[in-house]
Each structure stands twice: as structure tokens, then as C-alpha cells.
Amino acid sequence: MEIIIAEPIGYCYGVERALNITYEALKSKSDNIYTLGPIIILTFFLMTSGSSLR
């Protein structure tokens, strides 16, 4: 089976935007940053599911 990887590969716009907002918040003078949930849901899902994914 041949696997073709599209160019360019990377995060979708929503994930990229969420990360950019987070990085900008980290650069601010605020000591604490709070979110109402995980910044990237898929990452949270993969971390909590672990090897149970098949």
C-alpha cells in the first residue's frame, strides 16, 4: 500500500490560532493564565485515552 502525505502538513487553523493566543498570553505581564478547558481537545483526548486506542 502506498501512503501519500499532503504538503504542507500541520495544524488546522483553529489549533494554530489557539496556540498563538496562548503564546501571546504567556508573553503578557499576567502571572496566571486560566482556560475553561484544554487548549487542544485532541491532544487531551489522546493523553487521557493512551494505549486504549486501537
From TrEMBL:
GO terms for biological process: dimethylallyl diphosphate biosynthetic process; isopentenyl diphosphate biosynthetic process, methylerythritol 4-phosphate pathway. Keywords: 4Fe-4S, Iron, Iron-sulfur, Membrane, Metal-binding, Transmembrane, Transmembrane helix. InterPro entries: LytB/IspH. Pfam families: LYTB. Its cofactor is [4Fe-4S] cluster. One of its GO terms (molecular function) is metal ion binding. The chain crosses the membrane at residues 33-53. The keyword Cell inner membrane does not apply. The keyword Iron-sulfur applies. This is 4-hydroxy-3-methylbut-2-enyl diphosphate reductase. The lineage of its organism: unclassified sequences, metagenomes, ecological metagenomes.
